[in-house]
Amino acid sequence: MLRFAAGAGAALLLILAGFFYWQSLAQREDGIPRPPPQRIAQPDGEDDQEGPAPPPSADSRTKEQRRFDRADKDKNGRITLAELHQPRRRAFARLDTNGDGRLSFEEWAIRTTTRFQEADRNRDQQLTRDEYATTAPRRRAPARRQNCDC
After folding, report:
1. 30 C-beta neighbours (distance < 10 Å), count
2. pLDDT at 15
């Protein structure tokens, strides 16, 4: 019988401890300050009212319409083959180092060859693990979101 009473007492103590812990968490959450209200400018010159700022307007064009507009370089509502080739011509011209209009394997692989030569510090035409680690692509920093109070 003594074991039963000790077990019931221990259970009650655990329940009370859990209840007080739960209450302490609830009190901490209430202490978070609320952000100050933003002011909205009225278009007709009236006094500002307090309240949340209006959301920014979204682009009404669909993704496919935006893609079409990027490809339509002369903005005439039609895409010609020359307009589709334009970005590829620039990329080809960067690779065609001798300007003969033909792309050899060496011209195509110039970036890889250059990176290999830069990484090969001891000039033995082989990369060790440490040398190869320097060729890893650089990761871009994530774009920062701008909080604009416009």
Report:
1. 6
2. 92
Q: Which tokens in the block code for residue 51?
A: 């309240």
pLDDT tens per residue across span 45-59: 555 556 677 887 877
Do the beta carbons of residue 72 and residue 86 sit within 8 Å?
Answer: no
Amino acid identity for residue 120 in this structure: D
